[in-house]
Amino acid sequence: MKRLTLLTLFCLCGMAAMGQDITQKATRGSFFVMPGASYGRTYSYSLMAGYVKDWGGYVRYKSNLASKGEVGTGVKDAFYDDSFAKLGRTSYNAGVMKKMFNRVYFYAGLGYGSSWVQWKTAEKKTIVEIEDLSFSGVDPEIGAIYRYGVLVVGVGGNMLIGKKLIPEANLSVGIAF
User: Fold this and answer.
1) Amino acid 22: pLDDT
2) Which 3 state secondary structure label does DSSP give 159?
3) Backbone angles phi, psi at 65, to 5 degrees
4) In this structure, what are the phi and psi dihedrals at residue 128, rounded to the nearest 5 degrees?
5) Other C-beta atoms within 10 Å of 105: how many?
């Protein structure tokens, strides 16, 4: 009988401690890091990091990791070989997050982005940046994040707004701690 009483007391204390741990986890916020990929005019890679409790914030850097070739000067009225196309994409975003449901967060942000296109001339001697297709501008984004334990999965979209509109779809998978 004494063993049964001790075992019951031990179980109740353990459950109370576990309940306290669950309450502490529910009231504290979470940091998260999410590498991801995007597709629009070109494939891009991103890294998103932030903190959220009920409300929070995040920052994201996105790039396709392309570098510009050396651009020739003085090239006017040339014929271009569009079989050699070099595309570039970079953006910096920051925004707010809101916990909407138990495991679901929504985010919205604003940033600055740029996109550029380079072609070679028909003589294949000079690389030229195509000004009509290269521009910088505002880059708003919106999306949702689902959290399951320490795993976080995000989906969203953004649009580079400049001379043209370039929509992109984003998918990220990361961890929260």
Assistant:
1) 41
2) strand
3) 65, 20
4) -125, 135
5) 25
